[in-house]
Amino acid sequence: MSQDLHALLGDLVVANRILANEGVLDDFGHVAVRHPGRPDRFFISRSRSPEIVTRDDLLEFTLDGVPVDPKGLRPYLESVLHARIFAARPDVNATVHHHAPAVMPYTIVDVPLKPIMHMASVLGGEVPVWDSRDEFGDTNMLIDDVPRADSLAKALGGGTCVLLKNHGAAVAAHSLPAVVFISVRMKDNAELQARTTAMGTPRFLTEGEIRLTAEMLMGERPLDRAWSYYRARAGFGGI
């Protein structure tokens, strides 16, 4: 195993712990990262709650959502969700699927989730909503096969996030620090948008503000600062 891959897998464990600590992931949800030397492969934990994921839980998958070596472990049923986003988006190297309670209302009512503060510019504008019923009717609501995963990836398009009707959200970015940042700020924006709407009519960011601010926040310096902060909050500071 190369040194880069070794470090990346350590960061994947940390990303699981961070997103659990920040209230984005709970007993369910997951985070994945593309193999740095094999773009047609990615890593994700076996079926386990993110707060207790370890290095030994990590499995390698193909972009069809099939484990290369399952090691006798049970994978997440929705591993294919990440696989097909990676397949559709060569620019994406990290993905998250979550059911953050603050975000869930925007998957249930017809109120768009839109950036209301500069830190949430990374949402990229109004977040699209994917409804599995449109193509597949009544299902178990999991994204556990290729057709549904491909449909979701199409709804995500070239953006950073998409809502799953009555289910949750998927987030995609170029790195683990970026996808963690977007996921946390998605939750924060949902909370603030709900609080602000209770007070009056929200003033959302303009298209120009979203573009310029997101470009700045996705730079190396802000992401390194945020990643270090989240690491420390999750108990990994100085490690």
Task: Provide an overview of this structure.
- It is a single chain.
- A hairpin with a 3-residue loop joins strand 6 (161-164) and strand 7 (168-173).
- This protein is 41% helix and 13% strand.
- It is of the alpha+beta class and 239 residues long.
- The chain has eight helices and seven strands, in the order H-E-E-E-H-E-H-E-H-H-E-E-H-H-H.
- Strands 3-2-1-4-7-6-5 form a seven-stranded mixed β-sheet, sandwiched between helices.
- The protein is globular.
- Helix 6 crosses helix 8 (220-233).
- The model has no long low-confidence stretch (mean pLDDT 96).
- The chain has helices at residues 3-21, 79-88, 105-108, 133-136, 146-156, 176-199, 207-217, 220-233, and strands at residues 30-34, 41-45, 58-62, 94-98, 129-130, 161-164, 168-173.
For this structure, the quaternary state is single chain
**Outline type:** globular
Low-confidence stretches: none
Helix content: 40-55%
Number of helices: 8
Q: Span from first to last CA?
A: 21 Å
β content, as a range?
A: 5-15%
The number of strands is 7
Roughly how many Å is the radius of gyration? 17 Å
Strand order of the largest sheet: 3-2-1-4-7-6-5
The chain-level mean pLDDT equals: 96
Largest β-sheet summary: 7 strands, mixed
Q: Structural class, from helix and strand content? A: alpha+beta
Q: What are the secondary-structure elements, in order, as H or E?
A: HEEEHEHEHHEEHHH
